[in-house]
Amino acid sequence: MPPVLSPEMDLLRFSTAGSVDDGKSTLIGRLLLDTKQIFVDQLEAVEEASRRQGFDRTELALLTDGLRAEREQGITIDVAYRYFATPRRKFIIADTPGHVQYTRNMVTGASTANLAIVLVDARKGLLEQSRRHAFIASLLRIPHLVVCVNKMDLVGWSEDRFEELKAEFAAFATKLEVTDLAFIPISALHGDNIVDRSENMPWYAGTPLLYHLEQVHIASDRNLIDVRFPVQWVIRPQSDAHHDYRGYAGQIAGGILKPGDDVVVLPSGLRSTIASIDTLDGPVAEAFPPMSVTVRLGDDIDVSRGDMICRENNQPTVGQDLEAMVCWMADRPLTPRTMFVLKHTTKSVRAMVTDLQYQLDINTLHRNEGAPHLALNDIGRVTLRATGPLFYDPYARNRSTGSFILIDETTNRTVGAGMLLDNR
């Protein structure tokens, strides 16, 4: 029986993607405006900024482009997060850059998304960067993809043009791993098919974008089969009233946990049962991703940060030799034989990139097996050797236990994001 939805699971995270000037920031501004999420003083400030920049209309993109350089250049550089809600659902939007040099920012914004909106300019069609972002969304295993053909007003609301671009993208998507693909013709500038159905496109029989975002089914996107609970913190209150309390706090990465369940703790292999599951609001009868809980065990065994609680007959892969796809995010290229700190769930270990198998040309999907390094924004397949065992699943099976980041040991900066592959 599926779990009852919690407020946490009724939150949709989505990102925008596409080429430069396809209208990503304008689309988000229109969504916020038409769902009445903008305060009067915010709107007045944007209207004044629009007049100063010479626009004869309100430039909705200014609602999300927060950096001065973004406003001056009219481009998105950093990832801008915006929050809004309707009676049906809560939303977190990641407005990501379209320029190729900010691919790493796009990966960051899309890494936690349930859904990606790929915008295509109806006049320009499917550009290289549109394909690049669609591929990255597929690589990141974003379950739902919505292709919004924007600026339909500039092609005379043409149904033929929409169907032409729809067929072109659908043919490209056959090369991608996309499970849910939808197409919506819109005009972000004028609000057509954003919140309400457009009277300018009566030939379109589908739903507006907001309705699709409210109704898309995300409860089954997370892995509810494989129990995975990375321990983040051991809770031992020091007060006399709770001197015998010992709990293990963290965010559930997979499966459903219930009091009474038999579990095993990795790496020790010690067995126990779940005595209770606590939250800020009190004990619960079951817990599932992405709930943050404190688990109490029936036995007093040694459990530490970085350990993994799972089921005895359903355990993750345990290993130090790893195969992964990595998106490189640093100016200094990634070369083999380099050491990093690898952070995976709640565990950090040192790891060396022992081999660069190939660099992937995202535009052609060609594998360059002779590449000497990965440059900024490159994506490639690497082999790593960690100094300690990780408890992981392939990224295709569990995005939480299948992902990691690489951290430069000297600067403490995140330099790479990785997706673990099944190397068995």
Would you list the SSEs in sequence order as H and E? EHHHEEHEHEHEHEEEEEEEEEEEEEEE
Instruction: Kindly identify the CATH topology of the largest domain.
Output: Rossmann fold
How many structural domains does the protein architecture include? 3
* Contiguous uncertain segments of 5+ residues: 1-9, 66-77
- The top-level CATH class of the largest domain is Alpha Beta
Mean pLDDT: 85
Largest sheet: 8 strands, antiparallel
Q: Give the N-terminus to C-terminus distance in angstroms.
A: 32 Å
Please give the CATH architecture of the largest domain: 3-Layer(aba) Sandwich
What is the molecular shape?
Answer: globular
CATH superfamily of the largest domain: P-loop containing nucleotide triphosphate hydrolases
Oligomer: single chain
Helix-strand makeup class: alpha+beta
- Rg, rounded, reads 23 Å
Could you give the count of β-strands? 21
